[in-house]
Design brief:
By secondary structure, the protein is an all-alpha fold. Helix content is 65%, strand content 0%. It has helices spanning 2-7, 15-22, 26-37, 41-56, 62-68, 74-85, 89-93.
Length: 101
């Protein structure tokens, strides 16, 4: 399920959409996600969006990445990214190879 969520991070963002696609109730989906990943659906979705964004930032501009991973605005994406990784997405994209070590 995690790979399916990652592949469709932007296309299907809400638990209701996933529940409908999987032919289960929203509550069942939420319980299954919590049991499988140890965190609520919203946190799984955010984690997937941000980890996917790191890959996309290697070749795409920040605004495009924000849109592609499902954020409503670049500023919302920048805020979430900075909170998680301690630097802005632009700075992350411009990082030198030495920062990866």
């Amino acid at each position: 399920m995690l790979s399916a969520l990652a592949a469709r991070a932007r296309i299907m963002t809400g638990p209701a959409e996933w529940a409908e696609r999987l032919h289960i109730s929203v509550k069942t989906l939420q319980r299954d996600v919590e049991r499988e990943f140890g965190m609520p659906y919203s946190k799984v979705r955010t984690k997937l969006r941000l980890s996917t964004s790191r890959v996309l930032l290697e070749t795409r501009p920040v605004a495009e990445v924000a849109h592609r991973v499902g954020y409503s605005s670049p500023s919302a994406f920048i805020s979430a990214f900075t909170k998680k990784y301690g630097c802005t997405p632009g700075r992350y994209a411009d990082r030198s190879p030495a920062m990866d070590a």
